[in-house]
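Dear U.,

For the methods section draft, I wanted the exact inputs and outputs in one place so we can describe them consistently. I've listed the two proteins in the order they'll appear in the manuscript figures. Please don't edit the token lines directly; just add comments below if something needs changing.

First protein:
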Amino acid sequence: MPADDASTRSRLVLGSCPDSWGVWFAEDPAQTPWNRFLDELAEAGYDWVELGPYGYLPTDPEVLLPELAQRGLKVSGQAVFGGLHDEAKWDADLAAARMTAELVRAVGGSYVVLLPDDVGPRPDPLTDARWQTMLAAYDRLGGILASEYGLRGVFHPHADSYIGRQSEIERFLDGTDPDAVGLCMDTGHIGYYDGDNPALISRYPDRIEYLHIKQVDPEVVARVRAEGLGFGEAVRLGVMVEPPLGVPAVEPILEALDRFVDRELFMIGEQDLYPCEPDVPLPIARRTYEYLRKAGVGASEEAS
């Protein structure tokens, strides 16, 4: 463990995920094969992995655990999508979350990252009643993950969803139970809507429990807005870029974490690349890893 006076950035535990290798789906011949992903993840320097879409990596723990162990990898958690604004989807969303939670628990992870369903670039706003339905559902789901699986649910704001803009994120945090659900702060998705990451850290330091660090290209964002494009098309146009090539700047985020947060956090280096050529991800992953290390991320791990 780091010394008590260590900065939060030195306490950040650095990992990555299949998204950074162009993986969005359980099966897709255009994606990096799972064994190559694990090989390259370890080769880039990472010790921790977020598992990605359920079914991409082996879902049998007796298969997956040896594959991770032989590469020196450990699991932070896994993401699952859900449309919790829609009561009719509760049973299906809960079943998907349970399936994910069972795997995460079996392979030693701690977090289930809760992603909202894609509803398009310009959805009609939710009514207050549906907001309350959604907030209550996240509290309920987080409680199930904690009580039945011993895992922490963390909500991930996302482009083209009902919770992506800063005002929506703040409404979510103000309206949910901190004991039930935390925040997975994705700096790129927040930046996609011109959100203020350091301000969110300063206002909600106790809710930030997990991080996805990424950047966006503001020129691509401007085109996306002008043409009314969806997030999938934005990614194909190269909206996500490696640090320090885009926004938001990483250093102010790290400074805010140092100032307002005093505990260990997972930081998942992530860059949406779907689809991409097979030789593209590894050099980016290496550069991202080296950039973040030089910025002081995970320094305590190197010293221990």
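Second protein (the one for the lower panel):
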Amino acid sequence: MPAPGLRSILDRFYRTYDFRERLLLDPIELPHRYRDPRDIEIAAFLASSFAYGKVGLFKPVAAKILFTMGKSPHDFLLHFSIARHARLFDGIRYRFNRNEDILCLLFILHATLKRERSLELSLMKHYQDRDENTGNALAAMISGFLSVNTEKVYGRNVRPAGLLQFFPSPARGSTCKRQNLFLRWMVRDRDIDFGIWKGIPKNKLVIPLDTHIMKISQCLGFTKRTSADWKTAVEITESLRKLDPEDPLKYDFALCHHGISGLCKGIRREDCRECAFHEHRTLG
């Protein structure tokens, strides 16, 4: 349960936060380079898919892939062919994701666009208003992605670890940080988010849980859980929903970058007195 008085502190922090200043330090800057909603959707999914590790390392990889796809990532993927286009991405890899895994990610997105017409429709076919959050629909969408036959990429229908790393699922207990980040960008219509998906209420989103949000959430009493998993992400989101029932994820970007900036380490230190939330910390 959030401490009394925390809402006014967080709301002031949110209102005065310079979102545009931090934009270039965030993967959301990549889809902001496009204007067509179809291209924004694809660029956002690719940018969020690589959003693990340091932004200075993964963002150039995603940017190179998008640059290779030309002016319209959507049109490129719609007509994507392993035989014709694989060589364009030669040598591109990132940490756990080999070159073949990245090609297979593109191939799966191509198959999804051919089958569903958009990523939005691939999620919305599973979403129900009575769902507590987007977890069930997200799990079904991920299952659809992984049902694509990968033989054209790997020579046989397999799903190696480097490919599966792109597609965590709530059904397997993952935080699904990158998928929830993508959904925040698509659904929220404020600040730097795009709001181009209209069928999901903002309060059905789940927070993109990373180490920064985890530490700050423990500090502020949003969760007592110590494991970073789907249940913890939902619990933190429920705590934020008590502060803003309609748009609980409005705090996400500012809180995450508060951690990225080094202002919060998740442990009590002398300089914690300089933190905007010092008086509401719950860690001993």
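Candidate sentences for the figure legend, describing the second protein: Residues 99-116 form the longest helix (18 residues). The mean pLDDT is 90.

Thanks,
Y.
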